[in-house]
Design goal:
Ribosomal Protein L22, Chain A; 4-stranded antiparallel sheet; 6 helices; 11 strands; 29% helix; disordered N terminus
């Protein structure tokens, strides 16, 4: 199935609470929704291949199962197709469309699910912001200089989460694992705004890529995404 991102449905009327569905740049579309359905209603929205059945049955957690179902239904709605979508996972765990040249990235956190579809390599991350959680994790993925950028109490939690979510988006865009969030993923200093862009860099011995990470705040969630327009 060959589909152009320009043919993705621009205005979708879902039965689920749709929070975002927009063309964010030429060749790139972002869709998001809040999970309120039950699993049975979502199952009927999908066409199931053997790999899909196996993947779904391997999920023993009800929340993960709902996130898995919701992301696949959202993808189908965004592509506006009744045909079978052959969504596969590569050797590094990155999802891809076997019968399409489109790239995609999928993310979910708690009850929020997102799908980013692009003609270019891309990465999407969603995080449910909880102050106590991020304070325990921040030293694991941030450098001392990055932590210094969050020393002010005002918007500290939001900035810590933006660092995390932006680096997750970069990691997904890179898509090959074996990457150190402190050493290989760099975020340039920024001032906090409830939505915008920040500058970032993926740096490894044989790889260097300067990128822009866009982000939004939706209720208690932060959403970050990056698109490599050169690939």
């Amino acid at each position: 199935m060959l589909v152009s991102v320009r043919h993705l449905h621009p205005h979708l009327y879902f039965y689920m609470p749709l929070l975002a569905n927009k063309i964010i740049s030429p060749g790139t579309s972002l869709g998001m929704w809040e999970i309120t359905e039950n699993s049975d209603s979502l199952k009927w929205e999908l066409q199931w291949g053997k790999d899909d059945i196996k993947a779904y049955q391997s999920l023993n957690d009800p929340k993960r199962s709902m996130q898995w179902l919701s992301s696949r239904v959202l993808l189908r709605k965004m592509m506006n197709t009744s045909e079978f979508i052959n969504l596969q996972i590569d050797e590094f765990g990155k999802p891809y469309l076997k019968d399409s040249k489109l790239k995609l990235s999928i993310s979910h956190s708690e009850n929020l699910v997102g799908v980013l579809i692009s003609e270019h390599e891309c990465g999407l991350d969603i995080e449910h912001m909880k102050p106590e959680r991020i304070e325990k994790l921040c030293t694991k993925y941030m450098t001392e200089n990055e932590l210094d950028n969050c020393n002010m109490k005002e918007f500290r939690m939001e900035k810590l989460y933006l660092y995390w979510s932006a680096k997750e988006a970069l990691y997904k865009l890179y898509g090959k694992r074996k990457i150190d969030f402190k050493q290989n993923l760099k975020i340039y200093p920024f001032e906090w705004h409830p939505g915008g862009v920040i500058r970032a860099r993926i740096e490894k011995s044989n790889y260097l890529n300067e990128l822009v990470v866009s982000y939004d705040v939706i209720n208690d969630y932060i959403v970050a995404y990056a698109v490599d327009m050169d690939k």
